[in-house]
Amino acid sequence: MLYSPVESPMSSTVSFLTESTLSIVLHVLGIFVVALLVNRLLRTASNSLVKPAASQSRTEQLREQRTRMLAQTIYSVASKVIWVVAVLTALDQFGINPVPSLIVLAVAGVAASMGAQHVIRDVIAGFYIVSEDQFAAGDTVQIADYYGKIEQLTLRRTVLRDARGALVSIANGEIHSVANLSRDWSQSFVDIGLAPEVSLEKPMAALEAAAAELRSDPSWSQALVDGPRVLGVQSYDRNATVVRLQVRTAPTRQDEVTRELRRRIQIEFQKQAIPLASVARFELTNPQPLPGRDPQTVSPQ
User: Fold this and answer.
1) Nearest CA among 225, 186, 190 for reference residue 207
2) Which long-range contacts (CB under 8 A, 24 or more apart) does 274-283 make?
3) Which of 70, 105, 120, 202 is most buried when burial is the number of CB atoms within 10 A of its CB?
């Protein structure tokens, strides 16, 4: 007769604990493997946000650094969230209820968001500024009443130097609209006031000659995108006939180009003795005397 061995309570307990421990370890290992894979996918997705510099210019290099910083920030924050979720999920496998921890984290997050809502608003606005490439360090912009060159751009604030040389710090959350004057091309207009009694044929020919001379100058042609071109009569009254010219230039070079264009127009007008609109002079003769004063002739300067 064969007798089957009788398992002792101790051996069955050890077997159960071994199987239970192995199951827990496998579950926890699976959780962390999934978290690791999600982190790898997140790293790939964040790297796709980086825009490589199209050239070796300082602006392009700064733009690449900015997008790289943005991608690193997104990855860092999202990675921490993933690992926190993984740890809380693993705690549940050991019989530890993660709900109290989640409640504590939620309360702490709400308190932090209420105390730093302006900072969060600025960071979110900065994220959109960077991701949409609205402007970059080195660009010349106008933000509300502030006009100047961007010195520094972070996720929280924008720093520009205005025409006075002052550094102006603007919270990104306060930026509702921005005019970027450094993209693609810039444009400027030059108005020339002519004496109203002068025929337009000769002045228009002189303006065309000055514009053609500027276009053909190698030292200035690289700064020009289109023009200068004579648009025609902008306004006409008894004081002056205003003729307008238009010129498009490389970004931020419109001021120096228009100054040079005005100089060449002045030289051309002086060569051809073309009169400009003059300021009317007048004299008051025999005005009504003021009380206590003798009548006199007033000749304004």
Assistant:
1) 190
2) 274/194, 274/198, 274/202, 274/203, 274/206, 275/194, 275/195, 275/198, 276/192, 276/193, 276/194, 276/195, 277/193, 277/194, 277/195, 277/196, 277/239, 277/240, 277/241, 278/195, 280/239
3) 70
How far apart, in whole angstroms, are the C-alpha atoms of residue 132 and residue 51? 11
Task: Determine contact, residues 227/211, Cβ cutoff 8 Å.
Answer: yes
Q: Is residue 12 within 8 Å of residue 48, measured between CB atoms?
A: no
Q: What is the pLDDT of residues 224-247, one digit of tens each?
A: 988 799 998 998 888 889 999 999
Taking the C-alpha atoms of residue 195 and residue 183, their distance in angstroms, rounded to an integer, is 38
List phi, psi (to 5°) of 246.
Answer: -120, 140
**Confidence class of residue 120 from pLDDT cuts 50, 70 and 90?**
confident
3-state secondary structure of 243: strand
